[in-house]
Write a structure and sequence with these properties.
Elements: H1 3-13, H2 17-27, H3 30-61, E1 65-69, E2 76-80, H4 100-111
Antiparallel strand pairs: 1-2
Length: about 110
Amino acid sequence: MNLQQVHARNLIEAERFEDAAKIYDGLGKWKEAGEARRASKRTVVTQVQVDVNSLIEQVRKGGLITTYSCPACHSPIQISGSTDLSALSHCQYCGTTIQSTDLVEFLTHVVGYR
Ligand SMILES: [Zn+2]
């Protein structure tokens, strides 16, 4: 266990996954580098989910009702404070998966964040 590996582990503790992955790249430890990058993706997914939740909460507090159009079939998908998150994972009309990141961007505009 050399110092760089210790440092890489500390970076993972600190959720600085990409920095850790670069160190592993440098050491030729491809498996560890991949694990660090996958951990980083999982963290992003979790954060987006939290963002959608808090944005829906803002919609609820503001008493807003808005309509998101499906990126595939352009069907209207109504979003209000009582909308269940699971209903927003797929278009109810064509079944297309709705990207959480797109939803976050849309809702961010709706609630007036910059
Ligand atoms: Zn659709």
